[in-house]
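Researcher: Structure for this, please.
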Amino acid sequence: MTMFMTKVWGFGEPVGPLQFSSSGWRANALAKLNPGDQVLLVGTTGEPTLPDQRGRILGIMQPTSEPVMSLDYDLQPTEQDFVDGEYKWPVGLMNLRAWEIPDGPFLSNLIPRKFSMDSAQGIVPLTPAEEAQVRALPWTEVPLLMPTAQAQERMVRKHGGAKRSPPPATTRRAGVMHMRRAPAYTYAMQIKGANQVAFKIGWSFDYKQRADQFNHASMPVLGGLEYAPFRFQLWDTARQAFHMEQRLLAHFDKNRSTSNHEILVGVTVKDIEAMWIKGVMKDL
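Model: Predicted structure, token format:
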């Protein structure tokens, strides 16, 4: 196990990914890291690092080899994190664990040697003696920030794994509030077999399962209607999915069926897709 060091603009919790300014610097770090290696985070000595974090030992990350985009996480960046409209640290590595070093000392007081500029963009190894100095400090494990639902879905497609299950149904207030914070989809389905072009707009924890439920009831194999999803958007929370559904329905208010207000008539696929893009971008 090796400990590396990098300089950062700050350290807060929950902890996001180990960030880099370019894919090249991330690749450089990946070439050095082995499973179990850790990275010491030290605040830079100037802005935008907060005055009480400048030059201090802040925390430790244990990164994985899983590449991510930094904005796959809800990092709440500030204006100082952007240069000419581009995020300064766009790529990263997912972390396995992270620790805070409360009231960390100044790096220069603990490790007097001068570090190269590589430590501001990439990671540089500590000597065994330097590492021992860091390990003698008190560490406090802190929670990790999870990537967005979209990013998690992308990783499942990349690596395989169990399908994400919707939260169990509940009537308890705590359970209901938890369900509102669970990932969910906004969906658009074309209703085939209707006497006019029609679409169903809604949200669900599993849009495919919802389509199966509709089709089971309408029995398209016996000549009934078929609900065919053609647009879906995964959101971090059911609340976001519901809000997008409501924006779409409000925009097409004049086209809502009098028998079911989630059914649209008198519109086209292109009409829905044009508003769909606007609805997605509003919350991204």
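Researcher: Any notable elements?
Model: The longest strand covers residues 57-69. Residues 3-147 form a domain with the ph1033 like fold fold (CATH 3.10.590).
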